[in-house]
Predict the structure of Beta-lactamase-inhibitor-like PepSY-like domain-containing protein.
Amino acid sequence: MKKSIIALSTMFLLAIGAANAQTETTQVANVQETEVQESVATDVQIEQVEQDEKSEIKFDALPSNVQEVLESDRFNTWDVSKVYEMTDEKDKKVYEVVLTNGEKKATYKFDAEGKTIG
């Protein structure tokens, strides 16, 4: 009889330990999922702010230095898809150019002199 009571007590304690471990794992997973969702929401907000600060312009509106760079041998196999104008933190004009080459897509930022930024 003593052995069966000890065996039942041991099984009961193991069951309680397993249930508690599952609860803690679930709570940790929920916290991690919430952090990921908050991070994604923050990234979306940052992207939205960046889009609000830049305006789409035509290729012809780019400074001639930037146009020359985009027409050079370095970019001659790429097509200009979109062009954006924005102002950096130093209140200087920055031009973001989205280039495509078949399935490939690349984005470059230039200053008014045609130098690549970042």
About this structure: The first helix runs from residue 2 to 53. The mean pLDDT is 78. The two ends are 77 Å apart (CA to CA). Residues 55-117 form a domain with the Nuclear Transport Factor 2; Chain: A, fold (CATH 3.10.450.360).
